[in-house]
Amino acid sequence: MRSLTLHLKILITILVVLGISVTAYQIFVLGIPVTEDATDDLWNIDAKVEFVANPKDPVKIQMFVPPLSRDFVSLNESFISNNYGVSVNRTDGNRKVTWSARRATGKQTLYYRLVLTKRYSGEKAKIKGPTFRDSIAVDGPEKIAAEALLAPIRQHSADVETFIGEAIKRTNNLNDDNVKLLLAGDPSTPNKAKIVELLLSIAHVPIEKVHTIRLVADQPQTPELWLRSFNGNDWLYFNPETGEQGLPADRLLWWTGDENLITVDGGKKAMVTFSLNNSEMNAIRLAKLTDENTDANFLEYSLYGLPLQTQQTFMIMVMIPIGVLVILILRNLIGLQTLGTFTPVLIALAFRETQLGFGIALFTVITALGLSLRSYLEHLKLQMLPRLSVVLTFVVVLIAAISLFSHKLGLERGLSVALFPMVILTMTIERLSITWEERGANHALKVAIGTLFAASLAHLIMSVPELVYFVFTFPAILLILVGFMLAMGRYRGYRLTELVRFKAFLKADK
């Protein structure tokens, strides 16, 4: 007996731990939202390219587009142009689109459109980057000024990160004579970034220029310059104006390097205008789209990987154990008397279509009429199988009649009575009749009311949208329910209704 108890405890522990572990992995590692109402941002970015084409020259326009290699994933990317060939190439970690045409005249307008979202989940590619670089050749006064700036930078820094931050801060000190000499009267951000690159190259610290777009809706903007350096594990981003480390979450990396955003051969007056707008999408739907557009497949082996019609079926099926758990608690802990365990659950499933109030009324009417017929058939002394066949046929005819009259009266809700499980109703009528004969009308009525109450409560709980979503999305929670059911299987204590029944004994003891 002790070995059996230990075996049961180990089994319950394994089921509960496994259920909690799988569910926690889905929530905290895969990032699957806990509620159905959770939404994620969806960004629509339009880059409008305008230029004037030379009438006699072939036209070739090249523009950088986001690499989308790590933090963001593209859901849709389109190149809108008229009579232009389009090709996309990847070079040095950048992506560049090329529009080309044999002839074009006058003002030309091209569009690049991108729909993207944050990368939802899945393995991220291993990052690679340079950790050493050669010095930029410099001599004369510039060399002396650079070395003069590097001395305090080295003194006030402890590692590569602080070295870069200190170099940026020193370069932005326009009162320093050495900085003035190196800037040569040009205090623009690109020129400051050039001086920072010079200083870091002398110390053999690699640095890259990155151009970003800020994800802010309805605000005109131009690409913003940032600096980044690879520390051996990850890229470190720095603001070239303040030296602040860390790229804000609302920045989208567009391209890296010193090249211009756009180059035009066979045209002039090229200009790129960015416009952004933001929308929200259901997080699970967005995760499925992300799955389809990346190598991630964390939803492929969940119930969301099934066809849509099958998903709807499983949304009902996974809630059946919840209904069974409700009946188990009502029977074993509270002591409610019902017609078995599964009959109330099946009636609760029928209530999904009829709705609760109308379903209870239909159940009561059909069961009452069926009991009357069953009582009449008892006087004919029929065997059980013919008797059940007659009751089943009567139930079908009764359901058809109720549906017909409901339709004529305009009560479309009454048509859903056909979804009631006919066999279950037939067996319910038979079992209630036997209970009536063996234990009396009061007990039969009590059992019928208990069955209706249990079915109603199970229906209400099984219909909670948040619970349906949670169990369907995290089906491992059912393992925890199985563990609880196993624990309930060894319960031998009093039920709540028995405490009321034995209350008289407590008074007698006093």
Automatic annotation (TrEMBL):
Pfam families: 7TM_transglut, Transglut_i_TM. Residues 260-505 form the 7 transmembrane helices usually fused to an inactive transglutaminase domain. Residues 25-184 form the Inactive transglutaminase fused to 7 transmembrane helices domain. Keywords: Membrane, Transmembrane, Transmembrane helix. The chain crosses the membrane at residues 6-28, 314-334, 354-373, 385-407, 413-432, 444-461, 467-487. This is Inactive transglutaminase fused to 7 transmembrane helices. It comes from Pseudomonas nabeulensis. The lineage of its organism: Bacteria, Pseudomonadati, Pseudomonadota, Gammaproteobacteria, Pseudomonadales.
